[in-house]
């Protein structure tokens, strides 16, 4: 590989990892042990890259496709890229992967004894995004979240050595809620990609059409629908809060940050009057800190 191509490759990986700063919650905050931070960022790099493949948001230059051995003629085919990415993921467990972000993941997998299942779930979720554009029921959406979000929480618990069945159940509630919150923030962006993550049964219930979702601002029926889905997500976050109280020290702070990030994002949606069509409502630092304090207080009482 020439020095110029290596520089493009490094820039592509840095661009992927750099998106961590834009997430609703801290990915690997400074207060965690260095080993945890390194492992969480390795998992984040995987999750962010597979999402970027699924969304068609890869860094320009084609470095990712080259590393995955995808012919340039197929570099825009997301299903081809996902198949190649899955093949490279298997090399993490039995040989040497080609993509630099997967090579960075390999020490984490070995150190923490991680299995392929959660990683394959994330790939399956992004493959589903290419084939399924609408969800008829809330249960259908929950099944998607099981692949796209809950697997991430389970990896966090595995990395920190705290993955008991009860903690996994609570983590699933929090992670599903975080995925729903992201869907609420990104209704307009998702629709531009011809995707709707609001259950069709709920659109019918609130008399919302796809044309309503394409409007520049939300009408009363859309706002009522978003308020309904937001309360569902808030209830899931509260139900999962005992997870925070079940752990100690810096891990408790991390999980409180995840939960507070979702609650602060919901506060932003509420403050916007549930109009998510004008642009994704973003949480503020004061709201995040306030919610983190409330989560820690609640966790202390319930833990």
UniProtKB/TrEMBL annotation:
Enzyme Commission no: 2.5.1.21
Gene Ontology MF annotations: geranylgeranyl diphosphate synthase activity; squalene synthase [NAD(P)H] activity
SUPFAM superfamilies reported in the protein's UniProt record: Terpenoid synthases
BP term (GO), one: terpenoid biosynthetic process
Enzyme class: transferase
Keywords: Transferase
InterPro entries documented for this protein: HSQ_synthase_HpnC, Isoprenoid_synthase_dom_sf, Squ/phyt_synthse, Trans_IPPS_bact-type, Trans_IPPS_HH
Pfam family, one: SQS_PSY
Domain of life, source organism: Bacteria
Positions of transmembrane segments: none
Record flagged with keyword Lipid metabolism: no
Name of the protein in question: Squalene synthase HpnC
